[in-house]
Amino acid sequence: DPDKILFTMIHRVAEQKGFKLLLEASEGIFSSLGFQGIIGGPVAWGDRSGEELAHGLVQLGSYYRDSVSVTIGFQDISIPLLSSDLFLMPSMYEPGGISQLEAMACGCLVTARATGGLRDTVRPVKIKGYIVTGNGFLFGDYNAGSFYDAMARSMMFFKKANEIVLYRARSNARNSVYYWDRPAK
C-alpha cells in the first residue's frame, strides 16, 4: 500500500539482531501502528535459535499477508532499502554496524537500539519549525515495549511530517554516512 509506511529489516537471522523484539511487538506494529515490512535474511547453518526465529518470521508473513513480506535466505538489500521509509536495527549488541550506514546512504531513517556503533551513528530526529536534525529513532532497553515505543515515535514523525521535513530528514540520513575517503585525504 503506497499510503503506508514501509520498513525493511534484513539481517542475518540471529538472536543478536533483534528479530525476537519484532516478533513480540508485531501485533502493535502491524495492527495498531499500521506499518508494512520487508523482513528476512539468511540463517547460519546449525543456529537453532536462528531457525526458530526464521520459523516465527515466516508465520508472521502468513498472518499479516497484506503488510509483511518475509524471505529467508541471502538477498539483495539495495532495492528494499531504496524503496523503504525506515530501516530497523534493534540489535541486542552491535559493535560497529554497517547495515545502518547502508540504509542511511539510501535515505532511510533508522530505528535502532542505542548500543555500540548504532548509538554512535544514529541520531534522534528533532524538528523545530523547518529545521530538522537527526537521522533516526533510538531506544535503550532491549525489550519489546521499548522497541514498540521507538516504532510509535517513528510513525508519529511520518504522520506529522510534510514533504519538506521528510526531505530534510532523509538528506540528514544520506549526509551522515561516514566515508573513509574523508579521513584518508
What's the SSE blueprint?
Layout: E1 6-10, H1 19-24, H2 26-32, E2 36-41, H3 48-63, E3 68-72, H4 78-83, E4 86-89, H5 99-105, E5 109-113, H6 116-121, E6 126-128, E7 131-133, E8 136-139, H7 144-160, H8 163-175, H9 181-184
Parallel strand pairs: 1-2, 1-4, 2-3, 4-5, 5-8
Antiparallel strand pairs: 6-7
Descriptive key words:
185 residues, alpha/beta, 6-stranded parallel β-sheet, 9 helices, 8 strands, 44% helix
Largest sheet: 6 strands, parallel
Low-pLDDT stretches are none
Distance between the termini: 45 Å
How much β-strand is present in the residues? 15-25%
Spatial strand arrangement across the major sheet: 3-2-1-4-5-8
Q: Give Rg in angstroms.
A: 16 Å
- Global shape: globular
The portion of residues assigned to helices is: 40-55%
Q: How would you classify the quaternary structure?
A: single chain
The total count of helices amounts to 9
The helix/strand series, from N terminus to C terminus, equals EHHEHEHEHEHEEEHHH
Let me know the number of strands.
8
Task: Give your account of this protein's structure.
The protein has 185 residues and is an alpha/beta fold. The chain has nine helices and eight strands. The protein has helices spanning 19-24, 26-32, 48-63, 78-83, 99-105, 116-121, 144-160, 163-175, 181-184; strands at residues 6-10, 36-41, 68-72, 86-89, 109-113, 126-128, 131-133, 136-139. The strands form two sheets. The chain has a six-stranded parallel beta sheet with strand order 3-2-1-4-5-8, sandwiched between helices. β2 (36-41), α3 and β3 form a beta-alpha-beta unit. The radius of gyration is 16 Å and the shape is globular.
